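Rotation project, supervised by the postdoc (A.L.). Task for the rotation student: set up a whole-complex structure prediction and record inputs and outputs verbatim in this book. Inputs entered:
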Amino acid sequence: AQKVTQAQTEISVVEKEDVTLDCVYETRDTTYYLFWYKQPPSGELVFLIRRNSFDEQNEISGRYSWNFQKSTSSFNFTITASQVVDSAVYFCALKSGGGADGLTFGKGTHLIIQP
Amino acid sequence: EAGVVQSPRYKIIEKKQPVAFWCNPISGHNTLYWYLQNLGQGPELLIRYENEEAVDDSQLPKDRFSAERLKGVDSTLKIQPAELGDSAVYLCASSKAQGYEQYFGPGTRLTVT
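Outputs recorded:
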């Protein structure tokens, strides 16, 4: 069975602070995909990144960066110099490489950026 | 490029009534998903289509839920009869193929009274 754990239910920081959202996953598959989605108050899930299990290279996109470590089954997400517009619920998700299932989501982390 | 379109955005019905949700995926996306999202939770898969074929419906409560994707494009999810516990957001997503990133629609927020 697959599982995604986002232990941080809610994080509140002041604008311009850096913040890291944790994601730990469980799977028996050797091939799998990891994702991060953002869900702002409007409710629509916005795709942020997709990683496959064979690519452990960290990625940076503007103020966003992702740290994938297979040794600890973690795929953490860092926002540098946070902004109020970053306030949202962030979901980490896992998909089996075998393909039979959809995404397995964590429960999400509610990020609050205070001005 | 237009995103995933869903309608209606909101629906309020009384229990035991039927309800239907409609989804139009991104053009060219062969894989379509229906998810259910309860408050404070991540989405949970209900059914996945590859073109017009339902290839994974193991999580769909088949006694009251049904879905179809005629012609492999638009899809409809139906609940009949609705129960109080069905109140949730119903999300539709599509992807080029399985394994690729999924793009989500705005969802339909269902309230059953």
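Student's summary: The two ends of chain A are 41 Å apart (CA to CA).
Supervisor addendum: Chain A touches chain B through 24 residues (CB under 8 Å).
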